[in-house]
């Protein structure tokens, strides 16, 4: 029963009823931490620095028993935080991200909720987080800092966004790279409904500049299965026009082209040694957050 209740807390249908993105982030993160029953250190990783002699009051968990066996003296392992990469979350706010058919949230709403939840958790761990919002160009850039002012600034932007413009992912990523003053961890949350060639150019630029990248591909479940049938008018997004047809006649072709597009995107990312995560808008938010955190750690320490 308890597990069922916890699962419902992360259900996108439940989260979608919470209008405030800040409250959403707090709900997702606090519930996530309760679920794993331990204090998180996902953003912070530690490396050994030196030994020092034990004094009363030190945490005995840090005693080095190998040194004790050799010297018959108690020594504490001292650690220092690794130099953390600043984390820049890049969120697609183009018209295609407004699509919502098979899930309770649009792709933009789901991506934004995952983004602010991740940012909230990283900031509680003193990591620097920033945001970039783009469609056919960069709309808003919030530089990475380890302060909650960045979090609140991002929420203010998100709550005033109505996705409606075309996507030009490649040029936006070029502009993103030009904005950074130091090597960063870049998390791109998008449906990547754009030509692969300019996306590849943008990712290559980030790779050339030494940034680590995690691409998060967001889909509506109906985009994955295309369950439509019967006479219909398919409304094209981003000025692509409308089509009168029976969608079932095009299902096989659509799924083939979608699969080929995603295969090319995965190939580009893997050639650059960038990680890619794939999520649908019905994925429980705790699972989405866990995957982002794990891939972020894997990418940052690689």
Gist of the model:
The protein has 11 helices and 10 strands. Residues 1-9 and 36-48 have low confidence and may be disordered.
Please give a structural write-up.
The chain folds into 2 domains: 46-81, no CATH class; 84-301, von Willebrand factor, type A domain (Rossmann fold), CATH 3.40.50.410. The strands form 3 sheets. The chain has a 6-stranded mixed sheet, sandwiched between helices. The protein has a two-stranded antiparallel ribbon with strand order 1-2. β8 (232-235) and β9 (242-245) form a beta hairpin. α3 crosses α11, α5 (107-124) runs antiparallel to α6 and α8 (196-208) runs parallel beside α10 (251-271). The longest helix has 21 residues, at 251-271. The protein has helices at 2-10, 12-15, 21-36, 65-71, 107-124, 148-158, 169-179, 196-208, 221-225, 251-271, 285-301, and strands at residues 46-53, 75-81, 86-92, 129-134, 138-145, 184-190, 212-219, 232-235, 242-245, 275-280. The protein is of the alpha/beta class and 302 residues long.
Key words describing this protein structure:
302 residues; alpha/beta; Rossmann fold; 2 domains; 6-stranded mixed beta sheet; 10 strands; 22% strand
Q: Give the CA-based shape.
A: elongated
CATH class of the largest domain: Alpha Beta
| Proportion of helical residues | 40-55%
This entry's quaternary arrangement is single chain
Query: Could you say what the CATH topology of the largest domain is called?
Result: Rossmann fold
How many β strands by DSSP? Answer: 10
What's the CATH architecture of the largest domain?
3-Layer(aba) Sandwich
Domains, number: 2
Low-confidence runs = 1-9, 36-48
Structural class: alpha/beta
Give Rg in angstroms. 22 Å
Say which CATH homologous superfamily of the largest domain is assigned: von Willebrand factor, type A domain
Main sheet: strand order:
5-4-3-6-7-10
- SSE succession: HHHEHEEHEEHHEHEHEEHEH
Distance linking N and C termini: 40 Å
- Outline the biggest β-sheet: 6 strands, mixed
